[in-house]
Amino acid sequence: MLPRLGVAAVIKNELDALQEWVAFHLAVGVEHFVIADTGSSDGSYAYLRELSRLGLVTLVHPYGGDDGASEPFAYRSLLAACPTYLDIVAFIDADEFLLPLDEDRDSQDGDSQDTPDNTLPENGLRAWLGKIFSDPDVSALALNSACFGSSGERFRGDGLVIERFTQRSYSKFRYNRLYKSVVRPSRVSHFENERHAVLTAGRYVNSKGAPLQLAKEQPGVSRRVCWQGARINHYAVKSVEEFVLGQVLRRVDSPWNGTLTATHGEAYFSRFDRNGRECNAALVWAGRVHQQSLSLPSSSAFAIPFNAPRQSRWRKTLASSLSWWRRVRYTPMRAQTAPLASPITAWQRTWPQPSRVILTQRGVLLQASLSVEGLSVAKEKKKEKKSIKLACTWQAGVEYVFPANHFGGDDVGGNDFGDNDFADHDSGCLDDTVHFRIELPIRSGNVKLSAVLPTEAGEQRIPLERLTLMPDASVQELRASALIGKQGWLFLDQDTNASLYQHLGYMSLGQKAIAQWVAYAEQLVSLSHQVNAKVLMVVAPSKERVMSHYHPYPMGEVSPADQVVAALPDDFCLYPETLLKQMGDDAYHVTDTHWTQQGAMHVTCEVARRLGLATLEEAEHWFAEDQYKVVRLRGDLGNKLNPVRMAATQRLSSFDHRQLKRYDNGLANFGRVIVWENSDAVLDQCCLVMGASSSYMMFPFLVRIFRRVIFVHSAGNVDVSLVHSVAAQVVLVQTNARFMVEAPQVTWSLQDTILDKTEGVSMEEHTAAFAERMPAGQAKLAGWGMDKWNDCLPAGWFSA
C-alpha cells in the first residue's frame, strides 16, 4: 500500500521559489506540506496562508520565545504540527527538491535521466519509499544531496529552477555527503540539527536500505554518497543575482541583524557553485510541474516590494476588517446544485465559496471532491478510476475537461499505515473518491459542472452543479500575455481563445459545434459552384502545436482544430502542420504568434498544388531566387513583455508587395480591405482571400501568382454578396487554429463590419491608421466589384 507522503520545511522570504517548489513536490507525489515561516516580509506568509485555505499547507508559528525563529525550535514546531494521517515526512529546505531516481541503479555521475515526460512513473517515489519503509523497524531514511551550481548564469533567467540549472557537482563532492531525513514523525524525539533526527525507536537507513553510516560520527553527514531511488537536489546558489538578493532577504529583520559581507558571500558562492556534470534528471519533470502550477494561486500576486514600509499592527487589523466587511457585502459566487444521480454518491466543492473566490493567473480556482460508488481497491479498477474527469462548460459548444489531481487517500482521517508494511504499493487507494483542484480560465459567467464517467458504451456525463461567478470591478481585467518557453521562445497566454488550454488538450468541441463547421464547408463549396470558383480553406496551425518542443507545458492529444480538421473534407481544408514541422525553427517567429515568411511561402506553394494550379516543384521554382536578410523582430508576443523581447528572424528583402498595392481602406483587423494588381503575375486570375492575421505573411507570394489579389480581414467569415461581386477564380478562406472553437459565418456582412468599425473611431485612431490607407478611383473600384464597400466609408476617410 502506498504511504502518504508529506514535506516539512522552515522558510523565510522564499516567495519567488514557493510556487515551483510546491508544484514540483505535488508532481512527484507529495500530499501535504507543513511549513514554518520565521518572519517573511516578501509576501511568503500571505501566499502560504492562501495555500492553507486549500488544505495543501499546515502553516506553523514557531514557538520558543525570543528564539522562536531559530532552526531547532522551528523543527520542534514542525514535528508537533505534522498531521497524523501522514505516514512519512521529508524535512527539507525551499531550495531543495526531493527527486525520484532509478531505484535499480546507483546513478552517481551518470544520471542524465532522459525519460519522456509522458512516461514518468506515476507514484514512483511513493512506491519506492513504500519499499524502504516496508520494514517496520525503519524509522528514518537519509537522502544525500546533489549540489547544483549556477550553470554560468549571472542574472535570473526565464523558466523553472529545474530547467535553468542543469549542471551539478561530481558525486564525490564533500558537501554531497550532507543528507536530509525522511521520517516517521511518531518515532522522532527531536532534531539534533536540520539534517538528522533523534529517534525514539527503530533505525536509520540510506537509500539502498542499508544501515546509515555517519562520517566521523557527525549527525547529518554520511560516510558515502548514495543516490539510488531518490536524492535531494540542492540549488544552493542559483544565479549570482538570485544568490545576492536571497542572502539579503534572509537577513531582513534577523534577530542577529546579520550583515552579508563580500568575503562571506564570495566564499559561500564559490564553495557551492559546482558545475562539473550535466544532469537532466529533474528537467524531465518540468512539464508536470507547469501543469501543477495551474492549480495553484499565482505567487506573484502576493509579492511585497523590497522597500515597502512595514505596516503597524493596527493598520493590518483595520485592513483585515475592511476586507472582511467588503466580502460580507459582496457575494462573488452563487451555486445551484443538481440532484445527484447514480453512481455519484457525493459531490463536495470547497472553492470557490459564496463569500470568497481564490483568483489565479487566468481565472479562479476550483477545488472539489467526487465520490463514485463502485471504485474499489481492485487493480482492474485503477484505469477506470483515472478516467473520471470533470467537465466545465461556460461557452456554447465548447467544453473544458479536466483530469483529477489525485485519487483518494486525501481525507484527514487516519489509516493503518503507522507501523505496517507498504509492500502492496500497487493496490492504489482505499476510498472511492477522486479530487480536483483546477484553474477555471474565466473570471465571471455561468459555469456548468458535470462528472465524466467511463462506461462500456463510451462516456457518461452527470450534472453536478451550476456556478454563477459575479463580475468584480475591483479585479484587474485580464490581458493577453506571453509564456516564456525553452530557449526564449514565446507563446500566447491569457487570450480570449484560451490557447494554453487548447494546447494542453483540456478543451474540446461538442458535436453541435463540429456540425456547424461541416455546414460551413458545405455552404462554401455550394457557393463556389455558383460562382464557378475554386475554393480552399487554409488553417494556420498554432505555434504551440508546431513548436511544441519549446513550449513549457506538455501538449495534449487532441485540440479543437484537430477535431474540426478531421470532420472536414480533405479537398476543402489545408492544415499544413506536418509541412511546417519539417521546417524546424524556420517555421515560426520566436517572438510572434505567426508563421514566418518562409513558412508562408511553403504553405502558399502547397495551396497552388492543392488547387491544381501547378506542381509543388513548379510553385517553389517561382520563389527560388528570393533573398532574405536577418532582422530583429519584437513581434506581437515580444511586445507583451516588459522589457520588450526581440529575436532574429529572416525577412524577404528582394521583393516588396506594397509596391503592387492599389487600394487599402486602412481599417485595423476585421473589415480591412486591400487590393493588389500585378501585370507580371504567373496567372491571369483573381484571388479573393477572406482571412485572418496569418494571411499577411502570404501576401508577398500570392501577389506574384495572381494578377489581382483582394484581401478581406474576416478570419474565414464569408460575405456572399462580396464573392458574387468580385467574381474571383480562386477563393481562399484562412483562419488560425486557435480561432476554431467557433465556426465562421457565411452570413457575415463586410458592410456592417465597416460601418461598426468607423462609426466610433476616434481622431487618434483615425490618424494612426492614415499611413496605411490608399484610395482608388471609382472606375477602378467598380471594375474590381468593390465600389459598394468603399462607399460605406465615412466622407473624408482618405483625407488627412
From TrEMBL:
Cellular localisation: Membrane; Periplasm
Entry-linked CDD domains: Glyco_tranf_GTA_type
Biased composition (Acidic residues): 103-114
Pathway membership: Glycan biosynthesis; alginate biosynthesis
Membrane spanning stretches: none
BP terms from Gene Ontology: alginic acid biosynthetic process
Gene Ontology cellular component terms for the protein in this record: cytoplasm; membrane; periplasmic space
Residue ranges of coiled coil: none
Region annotated Disordered, chain positions: 103-122
Keywords annotated in UniProt: Alginate biosynthesis, Membrane, Periplasm, Signal, Transferase, Transmembrane, Transmembrane helix
Keyword Transit peptide annotated: no
Name the UniProt record assigns to this protein: AlgX/AlgJ SGNH hydrolase-like domain-containing protein
